[in-house]
Write a structure and sequence with these properties.
The chain is of the alpha+beta class and 202 residues long. The protein has nine helices and five strands.
């Protein structure tokens, strides 16, 4: 179940979810997804669920291993939680603490589910800036950065303001102002590491 949760985070970066938000607002996230929120068709997995701020998130993934694993979980009441497991004869639902502890264990670092969203938003912004190309002047640079924040917000299904303040590493914009762009010909993760490392020498 933890491996399935990890793959969801890696493929689509949903919010981790919490019982508090579910009970108070009716919004769901990774650990509070219900079976009815998921559709599996061949290699394709689609999440469609009520999310934060009264929005409805739709996330599409093409991932054979994930599709096969999730298909085995769609065998009960549509309103039952998706990510669940049996231990010592009892049914347990995966919770955010378990997910984050697993992330700590397999990465060896203090990472949480939110870091996946930050990585996804940062890559979306950096790719947008790279496709736009270097700006000629302050106004053009501002427009490029606005477009980058919008690209990140669309990837994460939140607002550009929230994306820029919470889910885009500011070093991406610093690099852009310094005349450096993400290398679109490389793995996004590796290219991003090199891009942001060049800002402060870390």
């Amino acid at each position: 179940m933890l491996a399935v949760a990890f793959r969801f985070l890696d493929d689509a970066s949903p919010r981790v979810g919490s019982i508090e938000y579910l009970e108070r607002y009716g919004s769901r996230g990774l650990t509070t997804l219900q079976q009815r929120d998921v559709t599996v068709e061949g290699h394709h997995v689609t999440l469609h669920f009520p999310a934060k701020s009264h929005k409805h998130d739709v996330m599409h993934m093409t991932d054979l291993e994930l599709a096969e694993a999730v298909a085995t979980l769609l065998d009960g009441d549509p309103e039952d939680r998706l990510l669940r497991y049996h231990a010592a004869g009892d049914l347990h639902h995966l919770d955010p603490a378990e997910v984050n502890a697993y992330l700590h264990e397999i990465t060896g670092g203090p990472y949480t589910a939110k870091d996946f969203r930050t990585l996804r938003g940062t890559i979306a912004a950096a790719e947008s800036l790279a496709r736009t190309g270097l700006a000629d002047g302050e106004t053009a640079a501002h427009h490029a950065e606005v477009a980058a924040a919008k690209a990140a917000s669309e990837a994460l299904q939140n607002t550009p303001a929230v994306a820029r303040s919470s889910y885009i590493d500011p070093r991406v914009f610093e690099a852009y102002r310094d005349g450096r762009l993400l290398d679109l010909g490389r793995s996004p993760d590796a290219a991003l590491r090199d891009l942001v490392a060049g800002v402060d020498g870390s």
